[in-house]
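Budget justification, computational time. The allocation requested in the original proposal was used primarily to generate structure tokens for proteins on the priority list. As evidence of use, we reproduce two of the resulting records. The first is shown immediately below.
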Amino acid sequence: MQYQVLISSEKLRQYNLAIDDIDNALQLTNQNTTGGFIDNKGSETLIRNIGRANTLEDLANTVVSNRNAAPVLLKQVAEVKFGGPIKRGDGSFNGKPAVILSIEKQPGSSTIDVTAEALKAIEEIKASLPKNIQINTDVFQQKHFIINSITWFSICTSTTPGTLEIIDFNCSAFERSVNKSLPNILTATCALTPESKWSSR
């Protein structure tokens, strides 16, 4: 949560003020200063002056300047309200805001099996989501590379002139070797966004 001060340029002109006046007033509103000390029965007690806006109303009542022998308060030249917390990151999909969820498998586990189990779990989650939220699981799946590249393939070798031998391989063993060589490979990424039309990748 943060305080937001939305300044009105029209009201600034009305009171002949500048944005720097607002900035300086806000800085002076929140200050901690030393106040020396007092002697309390042979011991010294330090004094600290705490000038801080503790509520939204305190901030809105900050004196920005004086005009015609009357104080000009912050709420007279700006809208003071609560705003959302400062973003530490952002995600988007197809140009729209989204929450990006990445799933990584444990070392030695099958990428294809983990992806299948993750998709089952996501299907269960969908039932509890608001109607305007959708999950797109086709953003990235490592299993697509494995299935397209090494699940089944053919090796063509010429044994004798004029003949061709085709050998088929089930490469699940090769997938296991890939998993061992890349134990922390990213398994899948999905995006949670407000309702929209998806384009598959």
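The second record produced under the same allocation is shown here.
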Amino acid sequence: MDIKLVSENEIDNALDLILRVFMEFEAPDYSGEGVDSFVNDIIKNDDFRRGCLTGQFKMYGAFDGKKIVAVMTMRKTSHIMLAFVDRDYQRQGIGKRLFEYICNDIRSNNDDIYEITVNSSPYGEKFYTSLRFIRISEEQEKHGIKYIPMVYKLKAFNRCKDYMNNIALGDRTEETVRIYFEKAQKPAIKAVLPQKATTVEEAIADYHKSLLPTANSFGKTILVNGEYIGDIWCYCINSSETPNAMLSYCIFDENYWNKGIATGTTLLFLEEIKNKFNLKSIGAFTYSDNLASIKVLEKSGFDFVESFEEDGRESKYFQKCL
């Protein structure tokens, strides 16, 4: 199966596929107005055809030999305008492969795109849900076309690509615990990160407990070019609960803030603890006004679950399947 951008001499076959699959599987959910709107906006629209040829819209196709069997078209790089798979090729993973190809294309060429959106048809919702899109609104209707707004959180490595080769996870020691405790007393950090230990002695005692065979927490130091800049850890590790653990992290060196390092570190750490503790899921809390932390969690593939208030301050809870 070959996947590539649809060329000028292939676009008529692509439009024929789109119309054929739309009429068979999606049109039954629409009113006459909705069917007419789709045909006029896509199939008979010269501006749409021109946009696909000029690059305003990117139309990707999956080909079985010379036969086009699936189409997915993007607007503004990160919005799926349409996606159709030939009847005889459905339920073979072709739509998923096409989507993954587009995701890789986006990751390779765009540093600032962290999500993909789609207005799914009622028929297509099951497909997008299987790709881990989530609803962001209830079903809507416009010009007779029914659609469900959905979003996919793109796991983006791009923004931290300049640092990824230089990020390492190191072992915690009494010395790093002392350094971390001192650095974490900065007002900017205390404002967004609750701290259990109130003295360095308590912090060291907690560190020794984490080394015991029965410990339910595990942590690593964050190193960039060998320089110690923070910690990342998980706690409440329990394979019989959901989530199986909770995540927290702190980069105490302001010189490394807003560079994508927290995201890169989180992805490395999750891969390690997933294998070490056989985790299937992990959660994380953050204050609602800690926008930087929220962005890290979203870019690391966490999904927002709920907001709640505690001690007069609103927090958000996120969770991720591993």
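A brief technical remark on that second record: Residues 156-160 have pLDDT under 50 and may be disordered.
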